[in-house]
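Dear H.,

Thanks for agreeing to be a second pair of eyes. The structure we're designing against is below in token form, covering all 465 positions.
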């Protein structure tokens, strides 16, 4: 991620344990960057961990997280790097997990597990060096030097102790703040407010920790468990609020392959708009999350909210268009002759006011899924990522140069987010950090000075997973 270097004399550090999915890790990173700046400590920067759902690292107390991170290693299984995954049957989740814990038991299954996860630097997706440096120019944050980071590619405590030159007992040099429940502690900003005189209840958290107490710690490392939840670290002073706002809005996608694939898809959409004579300019973006956590239990309500929102926006668009005519187009397309409908085959002949929608979703094979059959029947001009094979083909060529893991499954998610954010308006799934990232990070960047409309899901969201 960053050039390797030895620790500076008297340098003190801040560490935490990442867990869960991409955007949970991103939100934890944002909190860690803020806290490192508040405490004037160097952040021990973990890698971004991406995997099949069966190999996810869910939240847990620090000992259990550390045990799971120990198994995320390539040591001893280097022969799997060039393993041919073509034609391998998909293992069950239990088989994958067992193979990860015992990679030498079944060589083939162990190599399948090897290719089911990977890590990359945060700089692979985000221009993090620019974020760290530019914070100095963000005057309201009151910082006079960049936020410091120190690469931590290995999440074990033994690596940490060796790399930082901890020669005394680990207990003396590492101050642990462990969490024993998901919302264990919250760090209060008492930089300009005396919580000792005016204490506040912890709210949903079990306990509170004062920022001033952390500033007094002299250990080489302050090590947290989880730093997830957007309000885990309070920003109360004007300077801390400004810094939090800057960091939360700074991590935009800069991966060139994703940006190039997005441009290809946008060009295709512009062509489709002209060919189908859509009444409204641009398209709508939506995100439906269904596959894990509590989302699987609320699929119907999540989808219904999106449908009602599209209907409402389409109704507003219709007020500005009096063209009720059906469009016609002569001659079948090449893929229509092959009985594979293209976007034009589905959308041509629909009323000009039929809304153009890009749906980002984790539903497998969306067009053949019963979950979305009614959706596509009602909105035949809806688009999904598979409607853009040229963009997908671009991403399909990418492999992690370190471990040779195919990156397409992980690139697709961010490509989906980027496309949905390009919509002239956006609606997401309540409680989804993926939706919040689109609405809070990407969409405002692409639509400066505008506000997302009709989105009560943002206000209702508790952002738990």
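And this is the sequence the design step returned. I haven't edited it by hand at all.
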């Amino acid at each position: 991620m960053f050039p390797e270097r030895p620790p500076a004399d008297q340098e003190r550090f801040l560490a935490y344990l990442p867990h869960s999915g991409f955007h949970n890790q991103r939100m934890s990173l944002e909190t860690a960057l803020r806290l490192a700046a508040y405490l004037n400590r160097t952040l021990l920067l973990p890698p971004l961990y991406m995997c099949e759902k069966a190999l996810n690292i869910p939240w847990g107390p620090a000992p259990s997280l550390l045990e799971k991170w120990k198994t995320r290693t390539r040591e001893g299984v280097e022969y799997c790097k060039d393993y041919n995954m073509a034609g391998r049957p998909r293992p069950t989740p239990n088989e994958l997990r067992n193979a990860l814990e015992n990679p030498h038991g079944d060589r083939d299954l162990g190599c399948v597990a090897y290719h089911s996860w990977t890590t990359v630097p945060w700089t692979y997706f985000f221009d993090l060096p620019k974020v760290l440096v530019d914070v100095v120019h963000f005057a309201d944050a009151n910082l006079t030097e960049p936020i410091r980071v120190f690469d931590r590619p290995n999440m074990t405590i033994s690596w940490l102790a060796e790399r930082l030159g901890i020669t005394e007992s680990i207990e003396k040099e590492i101050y642990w703040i462990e969490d024993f429940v998901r919302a264990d502690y919250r760090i209060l900003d008492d930089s300009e407010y005396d919580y000792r005189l005016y204490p506040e209840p912890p709210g949903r958290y079990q306990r509170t920790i004062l920022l001033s107490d952390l500033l007094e710690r002299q250990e080489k490392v302050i090590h947290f468990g989880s730093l997830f939840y957007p309000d885990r670290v309070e920003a109360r002073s004007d300077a801390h609020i400004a810094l939090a706002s800057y960091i939360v809005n700074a991590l935009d996608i800069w991966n060139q392959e994703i940006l190039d694939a997005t441009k290809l898809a946008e060009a295709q959409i512009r062509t489709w708009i002209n060919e189908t004579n859509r009444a409204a300019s641009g398209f709508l973006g939506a995100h439906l999350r269904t596959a894990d956590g509590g989302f699987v239990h609320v699929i119907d309500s999540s989808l219904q909210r999106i449908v009602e929102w599209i209907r409402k926006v389409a109704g507003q668009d219709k007020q500005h268009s009096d063209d009720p005519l059906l469009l016609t187009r002569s001659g079948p397309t090449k893929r229509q002759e092959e009985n594979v409908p293209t976007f034009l085959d589905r959308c041509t002949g629909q009323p000009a006011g039929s809304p153009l929608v890009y749906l980002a979703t984790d539903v497998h094979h969306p067009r053949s899924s019963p979950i979305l059959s009614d959706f596509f029947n009602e909105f035949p001009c809806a688009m999904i990522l598979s409607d853009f094979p040229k963009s997908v083909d671009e991403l399909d060529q990418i492999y992690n140069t370190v471990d040779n893991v195919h990156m397409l499954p992980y690139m697709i998610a961010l490509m989906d987010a980027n496309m949905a954010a390009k919509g002239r308006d956006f609606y997401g799934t309540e409680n989804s950090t993926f939706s919040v990232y689109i609405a809070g990070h990407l969409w405002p960047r692409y639509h400066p000075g505008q506000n997302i409309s009709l989105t009560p899901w943002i206000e209702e969201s508790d952002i738990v997973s």
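Two observations from my side: The longest helix spans residues 256-276. The first strand starts at residue 13 and ends at 15.

Warmly,
E.
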